[in-house]
Amino acid sequence: MSHFLDMAEFGEAARYLRLTNLEQLAAKAIAFDGTKRVWMPDDVQAYVEVEVKELNGDKTTVETKEGRVSSS
């Protein structure tokens, strides 16, 4: 599985410790646009990924994956 670690020593748990090739490919196919998607500090989770919806001077409106909208 990995060139750096012999996953066989983890036995049955090995499949939970590493993404399959198909999962890795799917993760790489998702584009992360740093000008549209950014990380924002959050009180519950340390940071959450948000999408910039509007830039208006010093004001920015963002939306989380859960649909929460925030302006600052």
UniProtKB/TrEMBL annotation:
Keywords: ATP-binding, Nucleotide-binding. Residues 33-72 form the Myosin N-terminal SH3-like domain. The keyword Nucleotide-binding applies. One of its GO terms (cellular component) is myosin complex. Signal peptide: none annotated. One of its GO terms (molecular function) is actin filament binding. It comes from the Eukaryota. This is Myosin N-terminal SH3-like domain-containing protein. It comes from Perca flavescens.
